[in-house]
Amino acid sequence: MIEFEDVTKRYPDGTVAVDNLSLRIPSNEITVLVGPSGCGKTTSLRMINRMIERTAGRIAIDGKDINDSNVVELRRGIGYVIQHGGLFPHRTVLDNIATVPKLLGWDKAKVRARAQELLERVGLDAKLGKRYPVQLSGGQQQRVGVARALAADPDIMLMDEPFSAVDPIVRNQLQEELLRLQREIGKTIVFVTHDIDEAIKLGDNVAVLRVGGKLAQFAPPSELLADPADEFVESFIGRDRGYRALTFVQADAIELLPLPETLALGEDGRPLGWHNGAASNGKSEELLPVGAVFHKHDSLRAALDAVLTSPVGQGVCVDDNGRAVGVVDHGLLAAVVHS
Amino acid sequence: MTWVGDNLDLIWSQLREHVFLAIVPVLLGLLIALPLGYVATRYGWLANPLTALGGVLYSLPSIALFILLPAILGTQVLSPVNIIVALTVYTVSLLIRNVIDGLRSVAPEVRQSAVAVGYGTLRRVMTVDLPIAVPVIFAGLRVVTVANISIVSVGAIIGIGGLGELFTEGFQKDFLTPVVVGIVLSVALALVADLIIVTIQWLLTPWARVSYAVKAA
Amino acid sequence: MFQGMLDFLTDPANWSGAEGIGNRILQHLWYTALALGIATAIALPVGLLIGHTRRGAFLAINVGNAARALPTLGLLMLIVLLMGRIGFLPVLIALVVLGIPPILTSTYAGISGVDPSTVDAARGMGMTEGEVLRKVEIPIALPLIISGVRTATLYIVSTATIAAYVALGGLGRYVVDGLALRDFPQMLTGAMLVALLVIVLDLFFALLARLTVSDGLTGRVRTGRRTTTGRTTETTTPVEAGI
Q: Which residues of C134-165 are buried (b: 16+ CB within 10 A; e: fewer)?
């Protein structure tokens, strides 16, 4: 657990980057610090591994004040991922990943094995290991950055806008990867972003900071969406709060209606389209498109999307093989949402 | 200091010679390097070999060049032409890289707009490419001018060296004053030349000035 | 002209004794190596320090600029006269003084030019300042550092040639003595040998850079099937001035 107690960062010219921040960052979860430019989120993050020294207050990791430890040792025990990766251009990918273990003096064979393992863990092809960062794409470089931070198996990972510099498709992939990784390894991750949607998607807890370094709200994302603490948080979260909150409810809460006759199915049970009722003189009928489909393990948001995109107001639920298993309509959905 | 008073004529004539020997190559070199650099950007494969050749030539010690060039070209060793030719070779060797880089620094979109507007090649190069390339070219110009001013003195060893002759004079007579005067004047000359080039650059690039003013506003 | 030079080169008398060609080459190399060694020992640590701490940048940048404006012959004469023209020491001092600025400026430029986020990442991972310098900054700055040493070598070789005027040995002797005797073949030989020496040393530095600079920096890497030759290692900066 990382604890901020009335932490302040004041610069010599008077600017206050972080103002009496008190926060308890739980272990083994992803905590996101989010806010507009100048809210002190990056400063706060960098105070944890003492890249920036606080001017007042106390920061403790598992009860121990970080200023009591040797700063170099502290940092070797914390993973650090920054925008653009900060990879060493003069070293191969594997050598990059191996940096901290080598600093810690691990035995060579162990280092090599660990680097290989992590390369594959972050979803990269093993043969990329011998390449240099300049030969990698932005997304690949970021993955290497994450692997490097994980190499010495630290308890804590600090991530400073790690996915901001890549395009949206790659960013999405990286976010999914991070969530998958976290399910496997359960680190204490402190993640900084300026993107509220990223914060909601990734965070188990989200701390919203306002300009001047003050904490506005610290809560799980569902609570943030349902109950913003004040106008600032509400406007920062943005529109469609209600709609976005649907992501946090699973669609298996719905009791599906049986498949209607109007839904045309293929031989394998997959939905082909909707009969539109008008049987045109002998010629083969044109089916209306199915629209989006959803799975039971998707969120309510996907279910609502299926209903909205269906030409007949009924969303089709499919299993993992694509076979239709039931439908849902507006009425049923509304009942579930407001229950 | 009386030496200075007694030898004003000498100092002045050497200064004039020095300016001549240093500046003429710069102008000649520029005149050669500009078209050469343009050709190198036009026929891309030329760029690397030319730059490499320039690099090799530039690294040769000046005294070696002062002797080798007459042997190759058939000029006299002990003539100002020799110095000027040698320094021109130096100037071109260094500037070629700057001209190529400068012309290449023109953004492709800019070049395309110029072509689309209907500029012929020569007009485009003269009125669009070159002005934009000025900062890079002038950076090289400053280096090469200062370097030339310094190198001219070396010619004193073979007898023609502008202010350099004050050095050899002082050395032969075991007399410090001419040496000091020579160094001071040489450095002063370099500073003045540098200043002049910077001013010309400032005059040639009004767009660079404007952006500062806007930012300050 | 060149025939005369070839005669000079092939005359065995010219290869023997203290005045012999082989000896002169060695002398020249010795002066160069000594001056370069001292200049590097002084300028490199200072450049590393200023580059890493970013303090004193003013010094590093302007020393280079100022030095270019100094006439080398004048500097040589000045030091020799001031020290009373006794032997090698004044010349050595002049050579060292000339060798320091390019090394200082290039080292500073190289180290301070390392991407700050790379240095930040290194520090954040728990490298000590020394480790950051040794393992990250220096390897990345290596092309520029080597370029600075190469430039200094050129300056020193050049000036050592001129220093024959103040009674130094080395290849410059052929130039100066040849001039005095109006023996053009001898002068030409001297000039040619110096030029060749410079080219050889230049190749040496290019080789050194090739061997020590990481492939990840030069862009000269193979990506599976295609060979990506990026820009070749640029060990020359337009800061050189042949002297």
A: ebbbbbbbbbbbbbbbbbbbbbbbbbbbbbbb
Q: What is the 3-state secondary structure (H, E, C) of A56-103?
A: EEEEEECCEEHHHCCHHHHHHCEEEEECCCCCCCCCCHHHHHCHHHHH
Q: Which residue has the tokens 């000269």?
A: C220
Domains contained in chain B, number: 1
Query: What residues form DSSP beta bridges with A156?
Result: A78, A188
User: How does the average pLDDT of chain A come out, rounded?
Assistant: 89
Q: What is the mean pLDDT of residues A191-218?
A: 92
- CB atoms A103 and C125 under 8 Å: yes
Q: Which of A56, A48, A19, A18 is nearest to A31 (CA)?
A: A48
C-beta atoms of C214 and A100 within 8 A = no
Q: Note the Cα B196 to chain centre separation in Å.
A: 13
Residue B15 three-state SS: helix
C-beta atoms of A85 and C121 within 8 A? yes
C205: nearest Cα among C237, C161, C162, C168 = C237
Contact criterion met (CB below 8 Å) for C60 and C51: yes
Q: How far apart (Å, rounded) are the C-alpha atoms in residues B151 and B17?
A: 13
C117 and A82 within 8 Å at the Cβ level: the answer is yes
Which residue range forms the structural domain that includes residue C202?
2-10+26-218
Residues contacting residue B28 through CB under 8 Å, at least 6 positions apart: B84, B88, B91
Measure in Å the smallest separation between the Cα of C230 and chain A Cα atoms.
10
Tell me whether residue C170 is exposed, middle or buried, using C-beta atoms within 10 angstroms of its C-beta: 0 to 12, 13 to 18, 19 or more. Answer: buried
CATH number for position C36: 1.10.3720.10
- Does C217 contact chain A (CB < 8 Å)? yes
Nearest 5 degrees, angle CA A75-CA A80-CA A84? 145
Q: Which residues, in sequence order, are CB contacts of B205 under 8 Å at separation 6+?
A: B131, B134, B135
Q: Looking at the domain assignment, is residue C211 inside a domain?
A: yes
**Sequence letter at residue C80:** V
Residue C216 with chain A: CB contacts under 8 Å: 89-92, 132-134
Sites in chain C below the pLDDT cut of 70: 1-5, 8-19, 85, 219-243
Residue B29 lies in a domain: yes
Number of inter-chain CB pairs under 8 A, B vs C:
155
Closest CA to A295 of A276, A273, A271, A278: A271
Rounded to a whole number of angstroms, the distance from the CA of B9 to the nearest CA of chain C is: 20
In terms of CA atoms, which chain C residue is nearest residue A151?
C125
For residue B96, tell me if it sits in a domain.
Answer: yes
Q: What ipTM did this prediction achieve? A: 0.79
Ordered per-residue pLDDT tens for chain B, 217 residues: 677 777 788 888 889 889 999 999 999 999 999 999 888 888 888 888 888 888 888 889 888 888 888 888 877 777 888 889 999 999 999 999 899 888 888 888 888 888 888 888 888 888 888 888 888 899 889 989 998 998 898 888 888 878 888 888 888 888 888 888 889 999 999 999 999 999 999 888 888 776 555 544 4
What is the Cα–Cα distance from A7 to C106, expressed in whole angstroms? 42
Tell me which residue of A255, A286, A287 sits closest to A271, measured CA to CA. A287
> Does residue B190 fall inside a structural domain?
yes
Pick from B59, B81, B87: nearest CA to B150: B87
